[in-house]
Every structure is written in structure tokens, then in C-alpha cells.
């Protein structure tokens, strides 16, 4: 481990020194060859485009291809722009059609077209098929290279067919069974084929397939894929004909990308297109500044509420002491509800039509949470500041928890209904909304109870 870290540090130092001499390049190649693929991927992701291209050029063919396949499409595109044409052609040729399509999405149209025309006819046809689907459709992420079996085949014939085409598809562990028009009749696992007698017919072994249409939204399909605990999923066209297969690595990559995007937006920022250490400072600032400006402007509402109730604060100064507690409670309650409902939407546990049920459920959850917190507020504030103030605190905590839970559960559903990303209604937005509304509730209750 110590040796690996020392080698990694040495390669980093060489890259930052921008080696140009033959001796330096030989040393860089020697030390890079000793690093595992994971470390090489880390170096490419966290270095600028020129350094990444320099490192890539000294790798042997096998290392270079493995590293390239581990990169995200936008990182691949940056690297392609900095590499020489012969090496680019070699890389493009070895990519799977779905990975190639994702890369072409990130490249300038002229470059993508030139690389596409450089492929042989079969590879070009498969890549064009994948590129024909919308960017958010699962058809864009399927592999069109798939081995299909026919129901009348025997196990022996099926295995011979698999062996004859074993180098073509991305996976062979789940094999679709199709009829003469390529409509999917079922699927059979390779393990099942290997365990059966050679004379058994394929249709006697096939079971119902979990399918997806190529036009379906990618996140929904990927989450269904993982929920079903599949290794692969046949992808069909609108008439049920087999057009490709989705593998577990592609499904997981989709979910990782979606979760990273949701996580960033929940925190009030846009996701970064490059690794954090390789992203320019100004690009990080741009990813954060928009939400900060929006939230700063919306926070003026809170100031306006405080100004409106300034006379009440002057009359009972102790009310100001509880403002941070109440705004924090409202924001946290709303964020909890929003996070839970957003997750339920993502995995298909909740749909937009369930809005009334979600509101009623969150109202009861908020009432229960508010009863517990309100009782604590009543007792503690009552002991130190008198019973009237305790009553104000108890009732306010109850009302704020109910309001925040309903708002937090409602916003992701509204976003989904209007076609927006539920994560856009991020935690900072909900916190700001609940702050202003919570203060209105607080001072309204205080005015009524304390006769202000």
C-alpha cells in the first residue's frame, strides 16, 4: 500500500512538472504502468485535460481502454479532444454502442459525425440505433448487441449458438427468447441452460420476462431494474420486439448519476460536470450562486414578517428568543418530509395521483411530531417564562410541524405534476418558505394568547 501511494505521488509530481523530455516520459510510463486502474482513473479525473491526455498517451493499450471505460461521458469527451486521431479511433472502436452514444452526446457534432463515419458498417448501424432515442429514454443506454434464442431450440443448440457469438454481446447471463418477428416470449438464464439436459427445449425453460420499452424514462426503468434484482433486462420497441438489453452496470450508473444530481440540488447547488478537484473555481461558484441569490431574495420575506410584528416583539421581548428554534424546527420538518416523498417518487412507491393520501398522511405525521415537541415546549417555556409563553410555544410548535410536513410532502408531487425535477424544490427553498410562514403562525398565536 505504501509503495502504491508513493508511486501515485511520483506520477502526480511528474504530471504537474509537465514532462517533455524522453527520459521523463519513459519514467512516467514506467511508474504509471505499475499503478492499478483505480488510481489511474483518479489521476485522469482530477487532472486538467492536458495532463490527462499526457498520462493517457503513455499507457499501454489495455490500460488505456480500461481507464477510458471507467470515465463519465463528459470526461471521455474532454480526453478525446486532447488526444491524437489514431488513439481516438482505437478507443472508439472498442467501446460498446451505448457507451459510444453517450460519448458522442458530449462531443461537438462535427467531431461525433467524423468518428461515427470512421466505424465499420455494423458498429455504425448499432450506434445510430441507440442515438435515435431521446437522451432521457432507456433506449439510449441499452446495448443493441444481444444474443436471442428461439423457443424450438434445444439446450444443446442454444449453448452452441451462445458459444458461436460469445464475443459480441455485453452480457450472456440472461438470454431473451424470441419468436420469428423478434417479439419477446420470455427469458432464460445461462445457468439454467447449463444445468439442463441437452435435448430439453428452450421454451420449456423460459420464464416471464421483466421488460421495458425503449422509449421509457431512464430513471424509472433503472429503479425498477434494481428493485427486481435483475442482472439484465430486455428492451423492446412499441410492438414488443427485442431491440436491446440493459445490463446492471448501466442501470447502476444511471441511478448514481440521478442520485448525485438530486443530492446536489437538495443542497441548493447544481451538480458538477467534472471531478471536484478538476473543476475550475468559477464553475463551482456558478453551480452554487444561483440558488444562493434566490434564497437570499426569498429570505427578505422573513425580514418583512419580523418588521410587521415589530410592535409585538417590543412588547414581549422574550418572543425573539424562540425564533431560531421555531424556524429551525419548521425547516427540518419540511426537509424530512420532502426527502422521504422525493425518494418514494423515485422508486415508484408514490405517484402524483396519491397527492391527497400523501397530504393526509403528512398532516397526521406533523400533528404527532408537533404534539411531542409542543408538549416539551409548553413545559420548558412555561417553567422559565410563565404559562402564557409556554402555551404560545406549545401551540406554535404543533402548528408549524403540521404546516411544514404538509408543505414538504406536497412540493415534490407538485414538481412532478408540472414536469419539473422534484429535487429542484430543494431543502433550502423549503426551509425559507417554512421560516416565513412559521413566523406568521408564531406571532399570530402570540397575539391571540398574550393579547398583544
UniProtKB/TrEMBL annotation:
Protein name as it appears in the record: Magnesium transporter MgtE
Organism classification: Bacteria, Bacillati, Actinomycetota, Actinomycetes, Micrococcales
Subunit text: Homodimer.
Classification via InterPro entries: CBS_dom, CBS_dom_sf, Mg_transptr_MgtE_intracell_dom, MgtE_N_sf, MgtE_transporter, SLC41_membr_dom, SLC41_membr_dom_sf
Subcellular location: Cell membrane; Membrane
Ranges of residues in domain CBS: 142-205
NCBIfam families recorded: mgtE
Family listed: Belongs to the SLC41A transporter family.
Membrane topology: Multi-pass membrane protein
Transmembrane domains' residue ranges: 289-309, 363-385, 391-415, 427-451
Record-linked Pfam families: CBS, MgtE, MgtE_N
Keywords: CBS domain, Cell membrane, Magnesium, Membrane, Metal-binding, Transmembrane, Transmembrane helix, Transport
Major localization listed first in the record, in broad terms: membrane
Task of the protein: Acts as a magnesium transporter.
Organism from which the protein derives: Brachybacterium kimchii
Amino acid at each position: 500500500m505504501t509503495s502504491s501511494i508513493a508511486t501515485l505521488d511520483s506520477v502526480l509530481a511528474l504530471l504537474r512538472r509537465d514532462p517533455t523530455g524522453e527520459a521523463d516520459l519513459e519514467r512516467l510510463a514506467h511508474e504509471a504502468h505499475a499503478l492499478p486502474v483505480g488510481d489511474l482513473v483518479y489521476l485522469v479525473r482530477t487532472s486538467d485535460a492536458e495532463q490527462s491526455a499526457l498520462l493517457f498517451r503513455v499507457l499501454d493499450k489495455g490500460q488505456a481502454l480500461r481507464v477510458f471505460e471507467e470515465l463519465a461521458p463528459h470526461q471521455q469527451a474532454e480526453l478525446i479532444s486532447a488526444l491524437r486521431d489514431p488513439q481516438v479511433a482505437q478507443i472508439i472502436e472498442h467501446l460498446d454502442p451505448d457507451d459510444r452514444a453517450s460519448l458522442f452526446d458530449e462531443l461537438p457534432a462535427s467531431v461525433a459525425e467524423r468518428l461515427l463515419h470512421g466505424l465499420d458498417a455494423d458498429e455504425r448501424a448499432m450506434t445510430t440505433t441507440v442515438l435515435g432515442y431521446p437522451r432521457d429514454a432507456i433506449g439510449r443506454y441499452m446495448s443493441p448487441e444481444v444474443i436471442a434464442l428461439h423457443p424450438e431450440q434445444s439446450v444443446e443448440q442454444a449453448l452452441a449458438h451462445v458459444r458461436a457469438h460469445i464475443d459480441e454481446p455485453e452480457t450472456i447471463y440472461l438470454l431473451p427468447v424470441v419468436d420469428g418477428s423478434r417479439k419477446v416470449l420470455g427469458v432464460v438464464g445461462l445457468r439454467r441452460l447449463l444445468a439442463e439436459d441437452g435435448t430439453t427445449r428452450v421454451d420449456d425453460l423460459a420464464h416471464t420476462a421483466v421488460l421495458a420499452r425503449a422509449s421509457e424514462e431512464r430513471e424509472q426503468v433503472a429503479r425498477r431494474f434494481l428493485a427486481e434484482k435483475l442482472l439484465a433486462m430486455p428492451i423492446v420497441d412499441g410492438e414488443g420486439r427485442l431491440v436491446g438489453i440493459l445490463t446492471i452496470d448501466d442501470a447502476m450508473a444511471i441511478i448514481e448519476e440521478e442520485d448525485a444530481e438530486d443530492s446536489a440540488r437538495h443542497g441548493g447547488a447544481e451538480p458538477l460536470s467534472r471531478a471536484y478537484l478538476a473543476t475550475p473555481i468559477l464553475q463551482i461558484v456558478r453551480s452554487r450562486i444561483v440558488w444562493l441569490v434566490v434564497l437570499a431574495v426569498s429570505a427578505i420575506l422573513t425580514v418583512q414578517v419580523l418588521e410587521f410584528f415589530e410592535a409585538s416583539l417590543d412588547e414581549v421581548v422574550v418572543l425573539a428568543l424562540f425564533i431560531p428554534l421555531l424556524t429551525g424546527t419548521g425547516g427540518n420538518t419540511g426537509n424530512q418530509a420532502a426527502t422521504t416523498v422525493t425518494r418514494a417518487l423515485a422508486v415508484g412507491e408514490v405517484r402524483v395521483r396519491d397527492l391527497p393520501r400523501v397530504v393526509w398522511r403528512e398532516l397526521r405525521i406533523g400533528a404527532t411530531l408537533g404534539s411531542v415537541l409542543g408538549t416539551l415546549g409548553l413545559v420548558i417555556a412555561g417553567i422559565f417564562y410563565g404559562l402564557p409563553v409556554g402555551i404560545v410555544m406549545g401551540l406554535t410548535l404543533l402548528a408549524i410541524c403540521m404546516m411544514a410536513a404538509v408543505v414538504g410532502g406536497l412540493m415534490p408531487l407538485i414538481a412532478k405534476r408540472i414536469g419539473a425535477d422534484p429535487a429542484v424544490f430543494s431543502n433550502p427553498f423549503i426551509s425559507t418558505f417554512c421560516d416565513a410562514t412559521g413566523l406568521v403562525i408564531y406571532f399570530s398565536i402570540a397575539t391571540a394568547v398574550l393579547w398583544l
